[in-house]
Amino acid sequence: MIQDNFLLTNKIERAMSDLLRGLPIIFCENNKKYLILSAELFSETIFHAILKKKNSFYNLIITSQKAKKIGISCEKNISIIDNISNIINIIDYQDSKKDFHFSEVENDVSKYGIMLMKELRLLPYLIIEEVNDEILESLAINLEELNSNLIKQYFEIKNNQNSIQEISRSKIALKNAENSEIVVFRDLPNFGKVHVMILIGEQNSNIVPNIRIHSGCYTGDLLASLQCDCRDQLQETIKYLHQIWIENGIYGGVIYQAVDEGRAIGLINKIRTYNLQRCSCNTIDANYEIGYEDDERNFISASNILKKININRCRLITNNPKKIDSLEKQEIEIVERISIIAKANKYNEGYLNTKFEEMNHLNY
Fold first, then answer.
1. What is the pTM of this model?
2. Closest Cα partner for 359 from 288, 303, 270, 272?
């Protein structure tokens, strides 16, 4: 089983590596085969060289969120067949309200293709080309071949508790909590991505710890951006955990998930949305404009980390009910919610209001 899982994840991640380089992969569905590739990284020259394609019309798949932003009301992914210049305009958000010829699609090739793009933090748009065996044999490059079952298995393995492995730990003195320990985990079938647990105080199986799940925020945590409340929430949580350890002996920790930058759309897309927010979009609309949901996180890795260090009950420091629901679904008991409210300023006031008013975050 371990070998089978290794071979499967190796195959999927090789395919995703090709997608990141702008190359297509082969997707098999219902006895048909398709080339799929990232529309964001699409190169007409390279694609023609690989496929020997003779025309310049392409089948573009976009999400229902993106479709609504260009004036198409739908609940499913949609397919638009158009020339490359119009496709580029759609991707660059220049064609809102234009009339497109489109059709709704509900098949595995579009569903799992979009999932792969989101997993890679690329814009969730696909170019799809149906091909036959004769065309595949004539391709100028060997391509990975996937199907929906392989991708489903990959995500099941990725979300399994055994996918998280503790790699190393060390005592560390933090500015706001000198008696801390940093624990580093590797997410093996997820390109070896790293998660961090900051433990404050001495772990005790008889005490229910206070826990915060913190999504990495390069602009806030590292650059002290005033456009969000991430840095304030992180530092205030560390101070609070240190204080309750000193006063009451209640330990706790922060799970720092750098891979969830921008509510799991990635740093590049987050900066795209920041630019859109300068043009009157709020944080939700900006995500929709680039084809993503308002929040793409699932917090399964955080649950797996807690289980790895034998925490099955906690007091959760959060304003986000989605975190509570996610951990409870993963059989982590939440005995109490502890609020963490950062001060608003003139740069993040609108962002905070959107979270409270439209994303169901709690402000108490």
1. 0.93
2. 288
